[in-house]
Design a protein that fits this description.
The chain is an alpha/beta fold. It is built from ten helices and 14 strands. The chain has two domains: 214 residues, Rossmann fold (3-Layer(aba) Sandwich); 86 residues. The strands form two sheets. Strands 3-2-1-4-5-6-7-14 form an eight-stranded mixed sheet. A six-stranded mixed sheet has the order 8-9-10-13-12-11. The longest helix is centred in the middle third of the chain and has 18 residues.
Length: 325
């Protein structure tokens, strides 16, 4: 039997990351600590901070309730964090969705260095917003997935160890994407990370080339009659809660919520908005969406939770790179 491993995770604790943490423990390994985002200045004892802490504990569940959480706030003091995690005796650091570069001095605290989980098939779509940018660019089916790679001094540039692809059905909504990411990361962490640490997997360098940097500006997205109804609906369900998706009504942007129905083929009429509904032409249909507001936001969350609850266990074909056996 191979020696159990110990890891420090750098990630938020949520229903997306909890399966990954649980899969690591289920394989007989140990979580030395989880470094989570700390409260903003002046918010240490606020209601929002308390709510975030309670959500983390709920996501961890009874099995992981004694896991050590280290809150790490801006401005980041890497020396202080290094002194805290450097004494834990962990073999490696595993990161997901941390927006800043982790300095080499922190990675060198671990015999196996650091590994990162990136929600796209590298080398495509490096950067902070890969999920949203994949949907905007309509390449989610070709470049959507999860990559496990070594961490370096650059963003998402290290050797690739393994990848899993997301299926077409995973791109229905933000909830289905999140569930697929959760399952994919759990599979990579449970099956591939130990192989790397025990010398069975070396990884492969990322190929040279020019690739899209996955960032979205905060400027509103304006959809036009050239976009298909399916694309606009996917934008609203996956991107729209974080980045406004709009249609122009009498020259003014109106933010779109959930799709409601297709009325038929495009009519050539101008877009119109009334009674919380927005009617407009897409390339292939005249459609009606809810206007984005508190009701449509809650409806989207409820529908995403229902769809996640109906999904069963997932299995993935893991593509490994640089096997040494």
């Amino acid at each position: 039997m191979e020696t159990p491993l110990s890891a420090v995770f750098v990630t938020e604790v949520s229903y997306v990351t909890a399966p990954m943490l649980g899969s690591w423990v289920d394989k007989g390994h140990r979580i030395a600590a989880i470094v989570v985002p700390g409260p903003r200045p002046g918010k240490r004892f606020s209601f929002s901070t308390l709510r975030r802490r309670l959500r983390r504990r709920a996501a961890l569940g009874s099995r992981l309730r004694h896991t050590r959480l280290i809150e790490f706030s801006q401005p980041y003091d890497w020396d202080a964090l290094g002194r805290e995690i450097g004494t834990l005796g962990a073999d490696l650091l595993i990161c997901f969705a941390f927006k800043n570069l982790i300095p080499r001095s922190a990675l060198e605290l671990f015999p196996q260095g650091g590994l990162n989980l990136h929600p796209a098939l590298l080398p495509h779509y490096r950067g902070p917003n890969p999920i949203y940018r994949l949907v905007v660019d309509q390449v989610h089916e070709s470049h959507g997935g999860v990559t496990l790679h070594k961490m370096t001094s650059g963003f998402d540039e290290g050797d690739i160890l393994a990848q899993v692809e997301l299926a077409k059905a995973d791109w229905h909504s933000a909830g289905t994407v999140a569930q697929a990411l959760a399952d994919g990361m759990a599979a990579l962490v449970a099956d591939v990370v130990p192989e790397f640490c025990h010398g069975k997997l070396a990884g492969s360098p990322q190929p040279d080339g020019t690739y899209v940097w996955a960032r979205l500006d905060r400027d509103p997205l304006i959809v036009s009659g050239q976009s298909s109804a399916e694309h606009v609906a996917r934008l609203c369900r996956i991107v729209g809660s974080s980045f406004p998706v709009n249609v122009l009504v009498r020259g003014e942007p109106v933010r779109l919520g959930q799709p409601v129905r297709r009325l038929g083929p495009p009519t050539g009429e101008a877009a119109k908005s009334r009674w919380g509904l927005v009617e407009f032409d897409c390339a292939d249909a005249r459609v009606v969406h809810l206007a984005y507001n508190g009701f449509s936001r809650r409806l989207l969350r409820w529908q995403s939770r229902r769809r996640r609850a109906r999904q069963g266990p997932r299995s993935f074909e893991i593509v490994r790179f640089g096997a040494t056996d």
